[in-house]
Amino acid sequence: MITHNPRKAIFFILTIGVLVLSGEFLYAEGDCLSEREKILIQRIEDLEKKVKELENLINNVGEKERVKVERGLSSLSEEQKSYSLDNEKTIKEENSKKGKVNTELKPVWKDRLTFRTEDKSFEVQVGGRLHLDWAFFDNDKGLKYAFGEEEDGVQFRRARIDFSGKIYENVQYRMEFDFAGDRDLSGKGKFTDVYITFVDFPYLGNLQVGHYREPFGLERLTNNNYITFLERGLNDTFTPKRNVGFMAFDSVFDNRFIWQAGIFKETDDFPSDDDTNEDKGYSFTGRIVYLPLFKNDGKQLLHLGLAYSYRDYDGIPFRYKTQPECALAYTYLDTDRYEGFRLSTDALVDDVNLVGSELLFIYGPWSLQGEYMTSFVDTYLGGNQRFSGGYLYTSYFLTKETRAYNRDNGILSRIRPINNFDPKSGKWGAWEVGLRYSWIDLNSEIIRGGEERNWTLGLNWYLNPNTRLMLNYTRADIQHDLYEGVLDIFQTRFQIDF
Predict the structure, then answer these.
(1) Which pLDDT tens digit goes with each residue over 216-227?
(2) Shared domain check, 145 and 73
(3) Dist CA 456 CA 336 (whole Å)
(4) 199 domain-assigned
């Protein structure tokens, strides 16, 4: 072994010398010592003394240096620690007297870029998402005859940037703009979520005001970055979208019971200039969630939810229509398809009562999720109409991850792969398979919107918490009084969000 310590080297050489001379002495012939042998013995004794002296010297010097260094470092560390604590205490005391806080924002990355102060009183988050979809269709003769050939296509389903954060701990905010939602081709992005939240608001828990999703539907409230399939189930046509309003919400009993309730004015997902129109109705929407089972940080849970919404339209145009779970497909179901039997202009809607139920069961990598919704529509000329729809699906992580659940809001959250994608080290991210059955019935007495039954098979590849590739195959069975047929859809999505 090679040593780089000169003192150890000297000691090593002297030791070897002693052994060599000792060996030479032991192998000397004869019982009597010759003059030469006596000289050798003397040399050995001298060398042994020198070795002892050097060994003591090395030990003494090493101990002194070690003690000196340790004392020096210890002293320096204590001085620095004492200075740091005293200085920090002094600054905090001065700031407290003056009513000031440290407002220096420091960058942090956790799923998105975040700037926050040391005491976390102030926070600014910068985020965004990009969903690029491709779709390929094959519709049969019945649908081709009524609508023509479905054209394959590609689109940026979402291209958003958002800013969120908090001010003085108890005020939160969010502003999100979607550039893929440029429906009127004006070249400008339109906002989606824009709201302020007052945390720990007296008697209400939390109070939120602005433009955001009404509290109705588990799949609708779950961020589209985290839903299992490219599009939500067929029943999503009933769920209220984003509107402007006030909402109180909270979670109690160790986050086992969640409630949300609000009053909203109809504005739709992308507010426009006519949102101040007094003819647009108001609504009341509420939701409750109970978790009878919650174990292992959500790896085993049972979610039961119920939602209700009363919507006052008072004769303004209202209709239900839906695509076969693909944003690039034709709209095959529509309550305004028949002239003379249209929900919006012929029956004239007075008010709507929506009722929705939710089920979610998670057991490790396996989950089961479903919803059922009913819309009771009261019309001036057509009497009471009833429409319904729902879905049920199961999913399984081949790589043993578990779907993440947010107990504050009763929704699903970001998936974190056990191993991020890294082919050099043989790691391939997280893989999830899912199978869904969904249905909707838009026929009710004189209103003939049609019916549809869909099966969807999905595969998700999570490269890391912020990147996902999705592949869906959907077989849609469409039935209408004017046409019927089967549509096969292959879809894929390239997704990044932060």
Answers:
(1) 999 999 999 999
(2) no
(3) 27
(4) no
